[in-house]
Fold this sequence. Notes:
Layout: E1 4-12, H1 16-27, E2 33-35, E3 49-50, E4 59-60, H2 61-75, E5 78-80, E6 84-88, E7 94-98, E8 103-111, E9 115-117, H3 123-127, E10 133-134, H4 137-140, E11 148-152, H5 156-165, E12 171-175, H6 185-193, E13 197-200, E14 203-211, E15 216-224, E16 230-234, E17 237-240, E18 244-246, E19 257-258, E20 262-263, E21 277-279, H7 291-311
Parallel strand pairs: 1-2, 1-8, 2-5, 8-21, 10-17, 11-12, 11-17, 12-13
Antiparallel strand pairs: 3-4, 6-7, 7-8, 9-18, 14-15, 15-16, 19-20
The structure holds flavin-adenine dinucleotide (FAD).
Keywords: Disulfide bond, FAD, Flavoprotein, NADP, Oxidoreductase, Redox-active center
Subunit structure: Homodimer.
Family: Belongs to the class-II pyridine nucleotide-disulfide oxidoreductase family.
Amino acid sequence: MSDTRHTKVLIIGSGPAGYTAGIYASRAMLDPILVQGIEPGGQLTTTTEVENWPGDTEVQGPDLMIRMQDHAKAMGCEVIGDIITKLDTTSRPFKATGDSGTVYTADAVILATGARAKWLGLETEEKFKGFGVSACATCDGFFYRGQEIVVIGGGNTAVEEALFLTNFASKVTLVHRRDELRAEAILIDRLMKNPKIEPLWFHELVEVTGTESPLSVEGVKVKHTKTGEITEILCKGVFVAIGHAPSNELVKDVLETHMGGYVVTKPDSTETSIPGIFAAGDLTDHKYRQAVTSAGMGCMAALEAERWLAEQGEVEGRDVSEPLGYGAVAE
Ligand SMILES: Cc1cc2nc3c(=O)[nH]c(=O)nc-3n(C[C@H](O)[C@H](O)[C@H](O)COP(=O)(O)OP(=O)(O)OC[C@H]3O[C@@H](n4cnc5c(N)ncnc54)[C@H](O)[C@@H]3O)c2cc1C
C-alpha cells in the first residue's frame, strides 16, 4: 500500500551536499526528509583515505559519510533508505515517488544526487578501486609522489588529470585508444611539452595487475587497438579519466542543464530554473567536484530553501529582510 509523507524540504541524495543540507535545514526548524538513494553516503563511500576534508588529516571515506549521516540525524533530519524514481515539479507541493511506493510531497526540494565517474567496467578495475585505481587526480594524486602512474583516456578530463598528476608522479603514461586527443588545444600543447608525460597511442586498458595482500597495484596490461599486441607497464597508480556524468535523471527534461548534463544554477546560488527546486554538489558542478565544495553548496541550498519558503509564507515568524547565514538559522 502506498504511503504519503509531506515535508517542507525534501533532500534527494546522501553525499556531502545532501547531509550538509540536512544539517542546516534541520537547524532552521524545517524538519527535512532526506532520501538516500542507491548509494547511501555517495561517492566517498567508494574510496579509502580522504586527506582534504578540513579537520581530518586523514579519514576513511565511508567513516566520514557515516559521521555526516549521524550528524544530520542528530540535528533532526529524517534519513530514509529509498530511491526517488520520479519527481513531479509541475505543481506545488512538488511530488516525488519512491521505489518503496512512498510518495513524498514537499514545499521545496534540494537536489543533491551527485555525479558518477565513468568507468571502463573491467573486473580488475573494480577490484583495485581505492587501492591504486582512482578516477580523481585531485583527490588521490598526492598518494603517488615519486611513483609511475598510468592515465586512461583522451579527452579534456584525461589531459587535465595527466598534467595535474605530474605535480606528484615521476612519470605519467597517457594511454589512449586513438592517436589524437579530444581536448582544448592549449592543454594538448602543455601535455605534449611536458617531459614527464609519455602518450601511448592506439592502446586500451585490458587488465590492472597487482598484489593481493596488501591489495595494491603493480602495473597494467594494455592492448594495441590495431595489432592486438599486449604490453605490460609497471605503475603504482591507474587513473581512469574517461569523464563524469551528473546523476540528473530525475530532472534532465525539466531543468536547464549544460556542460554534458550538469544542472544550471543561478550565479552564486543553488536556485534552479524552477522556483522552489534547489540543486547542490556535483550535480551542478562540472569544475571542482570535491566533498568540501559539495558540502558548501548543501549549506547554501538549505539556507536558500529556508529563505524561499519564508517568502512563500511557509515559515512562521521569519523576517525575510534578514540576511542569509546566521541571521536565517533559528538558534
Ligand atoms: C573514488 C573517489 C574518490 C574521491 N576522493 C575525494 C577526496 O579525497 N576528496 C574530495 O573532496 N572529494 C573526493 N571525491 C569527490 C567527492 O566524492 C564528490 O565531490 C562528492 O561526493 C560529491 O558530493 P555530492 O553530495 O554532490 O554527491 P555524491 O557523493 O555523488 O552523492 C550523491 C547521492 O545522491 C544519491 N542519489 C542519486 N540519485 C538518487 C535518487 N534518484 N534518489 C535518491 N538519491 C539519489 C546517491 O545515492 C548518493 O547518496 C572522490 C570521488 C571518487 C569517485
